[in-house]
Design a protein that fits this description.
With about 450 residues, this protein is an alpha+beta fold. It contains eleven helices and 20 strands. Among the domains are: about 80 residues, RNA polymerase II/Efflux pump adaptor protein, barrel-sandwich hybrid domain (OB fold (Dihydrolipoamide Acetyltransferase, E2P)); about 200 residues, 2-Layer Sandwich (Chloramphenicol Acetyltransferase). The structure holds oxidized coenzyme A (CAO). This is Dihydrolipoamide acetyltransferase component of pyruvate dehydrogenase complex.
């Protein structure tokens, strides 16, 4: 037999005068037992108040923005339950509330994949009682993984929104909140899903059967203190921004890396000679300047490398702006040499030196890092043989360069010592085929082997 029951705010520990931030039901709605009725948000926690039983909402007694405390009547419900909620229900709520106030043991490591109370509350009563769920919203290092980490502290979303996000396979920390104090709303989650689908995650084919979300395991949570002493340092601003970009590019672009070796014996002799000739000036001609010039020639020869994907279209660029990765004390940045096709090697050498210096001093302007068509990541001054550079979206290819080494090369009659430069070209396989990449590399190597070809 149905009856009208008053649903009150249960014992929520030390919280009082907590603002209602969202009313999740309307009069006439049928609700299930445990379904969230409204969301409260204190300075420290967001709490959903679930319905103690299934039934129909007759009246809502509170409004968003109103401040409420334990005992406030929030909803009149025509209950389908056989008996009114029992005492044990409120004790479960109290237990849940006190759990909610304690900082979760590893809250600084990762978003909870379930509302914490579900795990903390005593199982039998949690199911049948008006327990509340709480989600701590304190700043945590997870912000380092947010695309817009500069603007956020931690992901800030009610449990119902988190539940909604989980159902769609969305990590809330990836979503920009547009609600009060940057709170993430259901609309924000929807907008994120829409943007992600439009930007091609679906098309690129993810791991799950549906082809949408990656459906990955949660990040491992390790209590490192068990294994030894620790020191925690925040990631630099550049690392956070670069990391989010690298992560997106790695996940969204089907990368393939094609390797090649270029004989730069003659080119290195020319470079040394030029530096001797210019020894009285401060200008130093680096291999990077030749690589930029050679890349422009290869982009002209193979225009599909100078493109960007735009849905089903490929945008061909008629300009040649080449980015180069610069290692700085605060992380990786990519200054861009504009119109490299219109500049000589000496001018490019001058400009890369100046831009690299500005990068290391943290003085690069944003326009000096914009408009790139193709990037070069040169680790030659450091070492290595080959590596897999990550494409700098929306570009479609990047050239990785490692340290040149003298190697015995067969000239048809004998082995000759030649200076060989390892090249690693990563390309977006949606745009570029393997054969085309091999041709690009071979052409680039032929130019570096005989730089007169750059003028052809
Ligand atoms: N093989 C052998 N030696 C090389 C070389 C190569 N491929 N490239 C450079 N060198 C030598 C240079 O000739 C120079 O030698 P000398 O001091 O004897 O003249 C020395 O290495 C140092 O060069 P450099 O690094 O100062 O200059 P550069 O023009 O080659 O590079 C820059 C400039 C900004 C690209 C570089 O300093 C840098 O930051 N590289 C790191 C890029 C990076 O981090 N990439 C990874 C991104 S992906 O995670």
């Amino acid at each position: 037999m149905s009856q009208i029951i008053e649903i009150k705010v249960p014992d929520i520990g030390d919280y009082a005068d907590v603002p209602v931030i969202e009313v999740l039901v309307s009069p006439g709605d049928r609700v299930e037992e445990e379904q969230s009725l409204l969301t409260l948000e204190s300075d420290k926690a967001t709490m959903d108040i679930p319905s103690p039983s299934a039934g129909t909402v007759k009246e809502i007694r509170v409004k968003p923005g109103e401040r409420i405390s334990e005992g406030t009547v929030i909803v009149l419900l025509e209950s389908e339950a056989k008996a009114p909620p029992t005492e044990s229900a409120s004790s479960a709520a109290a237990s849940a509330a006190s759990n909610a106030q304690q900082p979760p043991a590893q809250s600084t490591v990762q978003e909870p994949t379930q509302p914490p109370v579900a795990a903390n509350a005593p199982q039998p009563s949690a199911k049948s009682s008006p327990a509340l769920t709480a989600t701590h919203a304190e700043p945590s290092p997870t912000q380092a993984h947010e695309p817009n980490a500069e603007n956020h502290t931690a992901s800030h979303a009610s449990p119902s929104v988190r539940q909604f996000a989980r159902e769609l396979g969305v990590e809330v920390r990836q979503v920009n909140g547009t609600g009060p104090k940057g709170r993430i709303t259901q609309d924000d989650v929807r907008a994120y899903v829409k943007a992600t689908l439009q930007s091609g995650v679906k098309a690129s084919g993810a791991a799950s059967g549906a082809g949408g979300a990656l459906n990955l395991l949660p990040w491992p949570q390790v209590a490192f203190t068990k294994f030894g002493p620790l020191e925690t340092k925040p990631l630099s601003r550049i690392k956070k921004i670069a990391g989010a970009n690298l992560h997106r590019n790695w996940v969204m672009i089907p990368h393939v890396t094609s390797h090649e070796e270029a004989d730069i014996t003659e080119l290195e002799a020319l470079r040394v000679k030029l530096n001797q000739e210019n020894s009285k000036t401060a200008l130093k001609v680096t291999l990077l300047a030749f690589l930029i010039k050679a890349s422009v020639a290869a982009l002209k020869q193979y225009p599909s490398f100078n493109t960007s994907l735009d849905g089903d279209n490929l945008i061909y660029k008629k300009y040649y702006h080449i980015g180069f990765a610069a290692d700085t004390p605060n992380g990786l940045v990519v200054p861009v040499i504009k119109n490299a096709d219109q500049k000589g090697v000496l001018e490019i050498a001058q400009e890369t030196t100046e831009l690299a210096q500005l990068a290391r001093e943290g003085k690069l302007k944003s326009e000096q890092m914009q408009g790139g068509c193709f990037s070069i990541s040169s680790l030659g001054g450091i070492g290595g043989t080959y590596f897999t550079p990550i494409i700098n979206a929306p570009e479609v290819a990047i050239l990785g360069v490692c340290r040149s080494a003298l190697k015995p090369v067969w000239d048809g009659q004998q082995f000759m010592p030649r200076l060989m430069l390892p090249l690693s070209l990563s390309y977006d396989h949606r745009v570029i085929d393997g054969a085309e990449a091999a041709r690009f590399n071979a052409y680039l190597a032929s130019i570096l082997a005989d730089f007169r070809r750059v003028t052809l």
